[in-house]
Amino acid sequence: MRYLSVCCLAVLLAACGSSSAASSTSTVPSATPYSRVHAGKAPQTKTKKQVTPLPTLKPGVTAVLPTVKPYVPKTPTPFPASDYRSLLYGTVRTKSGKPLAHAKMVIQNGQRVTYTDASGAYHVGFPSQAAVSVQPLKAGYACAVALGLLHAGEHYKLNFTCAVNTPSHPAPPPFPTTFGHHP
Question: Which CATH number goes with the domain that contains 114?
């Protein structure tokens, strides 16, 4: 029995990391910045740095704050007139088949604009060798955007069908389409 008590004590002391049962101080694992913590004694702390107050302005004086120079994205370069070597033509109609007269045909976000005639027909010069968007616009109608690429000298027929868009029954935006050649 005595042998069993000694073995248990040895295992207990080994688990605590101490080789002496008569030690009066408790140990702290070696990973802490303090090797021993004594009862009744608090560890020393570093003194706090003093914070300097921000300067104040005199009444009536405005401050100029430092700013970052704003980033201005480059606007797309407009196509020169010599690039409009293709022809885009077609009609713009409502879903019921009625022609949409005086609809504004917008090429590449307004770089070139034309209007449909009374029969809904249009024809407009189109830039060659570049993927360009075209969209009919008319108040009260939702029309799709089309993106296409035409080769120099090419004539392409592109018809649009627009949905009536009223405040009481708004039309969902139509899906964009593609035409001509793919880049």
Answer: 2.60.40.1120
